Amino acid sequence: MRWTIKEEPNPEKIEQLSKEINVSNTLAKILVQRGIETFEQAKQFFRPSLEDLHSPFLMKDMEKAVNLIQEVISKNGNILVYGDYDVDGTTAVSLMSTYLKTLTPNVASYIPDRYTEGYGVSFQGIDFAIDNDFSLMITLDCGIKAMDKVKYAKENGVSVIICDHHRPGEIVPDADAILNPKQKDCHYPYDELSGCGVGFKLIQALNESYKQSFDEVYPYLDLVAVSIGADIVPMTGENRTLAHFGLKIINEQPRIGIKALKDVSNKKMTITDVVFGIAPKINAAGRIKHGLNAVKLLTETNEDDARIFAKEINYFNKQRKDLDKQITQEALLQIVKNEETSKMTTVVYDENWHKGVIGIVASRLIESYYRPTIVFTKSNGKLTASARSVRGFDVYEAIDQCSEFIEQFGGHKYAAGLTILEENYESFKNKFEQVVSETLPEELKTEEISIDAEIEFEEITPRFYAVLRQFAPFGPANMKPVFKCSHLKANIARKIGADANHLKLQIADFQKNLELQAVGFNLGEKLDIAENSEFSAAFQVDLNTWNGKQELQLILKDIKENSLEEI
């Protein structure tokens, strides 16, 4: 495990911000590291406001999109809301279809089947629109590379509005309107929205065009918050504002479908609870059965029916977990059997693996072999795959350099999907290994713990934590801060957990003997260091609640003997 400490910002900026907002230098330093340098920026960070949201009409083609929807509604035309089968796509379809139904009854939802149609806009979906007399199709979280599909739709009398947030290619489809802040000629102030976030900007614009109060679209922010958490977009700027208010709705007035998925406890949900509690269940519908099951749940208005849908989705999620575990074990065996443990990449394939979980399996494999990973299975006569990357490495670019062997691909820096012909598997695998070997920097080959600040043990107080928790909601570009303390000892150290693979410590510093409880998940093998050495710890600060009592607790990321530190 490689520890790196973030660059020290300008000391004068730290000192000034510390005084202006009355926080410690350590906390001010982390804020400055995150681009928050002034009182006004700090106010916006700690007290998000709906007034911080940008006008949706700043987005390229927004006016075109609004005018087209209004024209279709005025002519009593039919609108098909089309979205991907993952969390971002299903939340976006739920949001858009529910809102449009407040304007016209002529709205239907379409989610492609993961197994028969694959990712993105499909010819089958367009045929559905043609056969059922839809005059407009709105794509959400997909479409930015669907050149031939959009052309086919328009040739057959179906207008197309694309709402996407994926990286466009050099050429974009000839749609009637494209809403994507990542377009080079789009000057929208924030380009990191989720797919559902782009959809929200469209309903915000429609709402404004009908001279309605923002209160009309405010309840949809719960879906936007779920998409932001699940799709791992940066938790900065507009995303952070949208997530903040979306979480507020989830905790105070959740829609019936989300309420049915929530834990029965009354615990206040954080973005982490959404990412690990709600999102996998919504995702399981598209992975195991069909994404429309998730849309049905998220748009349901009857509590009894919502409970039935939620029960179904919980069952799908259990199946997903079982498949994930089984396929991960098979993939790990394949790596060892093929003697590929020392390669720069992991590329594995089995025609019987379930297409719905290969992305999760790719992430699991990175936990064992820390390197760019692609997991293939067979679907519709071709090989389809999910790719995942290590921190700092652009797997999308690496795959793009293997394009001569690829039929189709798309995605982000850290996650991508692709399709190849079976006869090209070995050639693609070798080329991908070559590209990564030549471009993966040495420092990215080892898992990194990025430390925000070194602090003294005595700084970790209830007041320190009270400010720290207001950094939430956390996510990419605003992760929960990681701290480092040196010269620590463990007054009590033991292994915990069914497999004794976790570490439980009572930590003290040598100078003042201040004590804090600490837990280190999957750090059981470090017990010897804790028992016998003076050590340093990399950790996050949290609040542990047990039997009604609350106390500060350190969540250990790693510990190292002081004499062996390599920082």
CATH top-level class of the largest domain:
Alpha Beta
Helix percent reads 40-55%
Low-confidence stretches: none
Morphology call: globular
Q: Give the beta-strand count.
A: 18
Second CATH tier, the architecture of the largest domain:
Alpha-Beta Complex
- Supply the number of helical segments: 19
Number of domains: 3
> What portion of residues belong to β-strands?
15-25%
- Mean pLDDT comes to 93
Largest sheet: 5 strands, parallel
Largest beta sheet: strand ordering:
3-2-4-5-6
Through-space gap between termini: 10 Å
What does this structure look like?
- Strand 4, helix 7 (147-155) and strand 5 (159-163) form a beta-alpha-beta unit.
- This protein has helices spanning 11-21, 25-33, 39-46, 62-74, 87-100, 123-131, 147-155, 195-209, 221-230, 237-252, 256-261, 271-289, 292-299, 303-337, 358-368, 395-400, 425-439, 462-468, 527-532; strands at 2-5, 79-83, 107-110, 136-140, 159-163, 177-179, 346-349, 373-379, 382-388, 408-411, 415-420, 448-451, 453-454, 483-496, 502-509, 515-520, 535-546, 549-561.
- It is globular.
- It has three domains: 56-311, inorganic pyrophosphatase (n-terminal core), CATH 3.90.1640; 338-445, Diaminopimelate Epimerase, Chain A, domain 1 (Roll); 449-564, OB fold (Dihydrolipoamide Acetyltransferase, E2P) (Beta Barrel), CATH 2.40.50.
- The chain has 567 residues and is of the alpha/beta class.
